[in-house]
Amino acid sequence: MIVCVCHRVSDKTIARSAQQGAGFDDIQLEHGVATQCGKCEGAARQIWSECRLSGRLAHLVHSTTGAHNAA
Ligand code: FES
Fold it and tell me: Which CATH number goes with the domain that contains 32?
């Protein structure tokens, strides 16, 4: 789903960037989200926030189980 119509940025793009550790400013610089009309900012920040948190939780699960040492 396109979140930022002005720059044609999808929710998947925002989610992927957040999960890779990008800050919201990074996403704005790289993809232009919320840099033109600004109407997408609330939705974009919500997606970024949710995906950033899930990424942190995933990291904690790996850290506590030692899964990062496997393989
Ligand atoms: S919809 Fe994202 S800046 Fe306009």
Answer: 1.10.10.1100
Which structural domain range is residue 20 located in? 2-66
- Establish whether residue 6 lines the binding site of ligand 1, counting it when its CB lies within 6 angstroms of any ligand atom: yes
Tokens (6 digits) for 4: 């930022």
Which pLDDT tens digit goes with each residue over 10-66? Answer: 999 999 999 999 999 999 999 999 999 999 999 999 999 999 976 555 555 555 555
Exposed/middle/buried for 14, CB within 10 Å: 0-12, 13-18, 19+? buried
Say if 71 falls within a structural domain.
Answer: no
Residue 12 domain-assigned?
A: yes
Q: Is 42 in the pocket of ligand 1 (CB under 6 A)?
A: no
Atom of ligand 1 nearest to the CA of 41: 2
Question: What is the number of the ligand 1 atom nearest to the C-alpha of 37?
Answer: 4
